[in-house]
Specification:
This protein has eleven helices and ten strands. Helix content is 39%, strand content 23%. About 2% of the residues have low confidence. The protein folds into three domains: 115 residues, Response regulator (Rossmann fold, 3-Layer(aba) Sandwich); 105 residues, Beta-Lactamase; 33 residues. The protein is of the alpha/beta class.
Length: 275
C-alpha cells in the first residue's frame, strides 16, 4: 500500500519518529499547518497526537479535507480525550503505550475500513473506542437517539447493579427517576441548540434493589457523519462522599457564624452542644 500519512505532533523532539514502516509521512506541528496540508490534497490519512497538540488539530484536519480518515492518539489511555477526539471527527483512538498493533498497521486498517464502509453507513460513534473505555474507573455509557443504552463499561454495570445484558437496549429511565430524566433531556436539548457539545448534571442514580445515591454525569452529544444528532455519551461518577463533605462543611460554617453572633458563655455552650 502506497499512502501518505499526515502526522500532527508537538514538535518537541522528545520522541523518535513514529513507526510508519512502508508509509510516506509528512510531519506538521500546528493545527493550522495540518488544515492547510489536508486542504492541499494528497493526504491519505492523518495521525494526531491529541494529548500534545489538542483535539482541535483533529477538527483542523477535518476542516481541510472532511474525507481524510483521522487516527487520534495519546501517551496513555484517556477515555475523556478519546470522547473529545471523537466529537471532533476522529475515526479511531489509541494510546501510544500499547505495543501492538503498530501505528502503520492501524493506519492501514483505518484506510481499509474507510474504503470498505458502504455509503451512508452510520456506525455507533462510541464503538471504535469501546476497548479503551472498558477499563475506565468511572461509569461510561452511550445512549442512542431514543435514550436507550447501546454501550456500558463494567464500572457502569457495578454502579447500577444491572447486568450488561439488562442495560443494553433498556431506556435510561431504568436507573433515573422522572425528574432526573427530564433534567437530562433538557440539558441535551440545550446542547443541541448551542455550539457547546458537553455539559454536566447531577442526579440520583436508582440502582437495582438499592437506595438512590447522588452522581455527577458528564454528558457529551454524539452526531453522525452528516452532523445529525446520534445520541449521547456520558461519564458517571458517584459523588456520595463529596456530598457528605459538603454537608459537614456547610454545618460547620453555619455553627461558626452562629458562634460569632452569640454573647455569653452559656449561649456559646448551648450552640456548641446543639451543633
Amino acid at each position: 500500500m502506497d499512502a501518505t500519512v499526515l502526522y500532527v505532533r508537538s514538535g518537541s523532539g522528545r520522541r523518535a519518529p513514529p513507526d510508519v514502516d512502508g508509509l510516506s509521512i509528512a510531519e506538521v506541528t500546528t493545527a493550522a499547518a495540518a488544515r492547510d496540508a489536508a486542504a492541499a490534497g494528497g493526504v491519505d490519512a492523518a495521525v494526531v497526537e491529541a494529548d500534545e497538540c489538542g483535539v482541535g488539530a483533529v477538527a483542523a484536519v477535518r476542516a481541510g479535507d472532511p474525507t481524510v480518515p483521522v487516527v487520534a492518539c495519546s501517551g496513555t489511555a484517556d477515555g475523556d480525550l478519546a470522547a473529545r477526539a471523537t466529537r471532533q471527527g476522529a475515526d479511531e483512538y489509541y494510546p501510544r503505550e500499547e505495543a501492538a498493533p503498530s501505528l502503520s498497521d492501524r493506519v492501514r486498517a483505518t484506510l481499509e475500513d474507510e474504503g470498505d464502509a458502504p455509503p451512508g453507513d452510520a456506525a455507533n460513534p462510541v464503538e471504535p473506542y469501546a476497548e479503551t473505555l472498558e477499563p475506565a474507573d468511572d461509569g461510561v455509557y452511550a445512549l442512542d437517539e431514543e435514550g436507550r443504552f447501546e454501550f456500558v463499561n463494567p464500572e457502569m454495570v457495578e454502579l447500577t447493579g444491572y447486568s450488561r445484558e439488562e442495560l443494553l437496549g433498556a431506556p435510561v429511565d431504568l436507573i433515573m427517576d422522572d425528574d432526573s430524566v427530564e433534567e437530562a433531556r433538557g440539558a441535551v436539548h440545550e446542547l443541541a441548540d448551542s455550539e457547546e457539545r458537553k455539559t454536566t448534571v447531577e442526579f440520583d442514580l436508582v440502582p437495582r434493589g438499592g437506595e438512590p445515591f447522588p452522581c455527577e454525569d458528564h454528558i457529551a452529544m454524539l452526531t453522525d457523519e452528516d452532523g445529525r444528532f446520534a445520541g449521547t455519551a456520558g461519564i458517571v461518577r458517584d459523588i456520595t462522599d463529596r456530598k457528605r463533605r459538603e454537608e459537614r462543611l456547610s454545618g460547620l460554617l453555619e455553627t461558626s457564624q452562629t458562634l460569632v453572633a452569640t454573647q455569653g458563655r452559656e449561649e456559646i455552650a448551648r450552640v456548641v452542644a446543639e451543633g
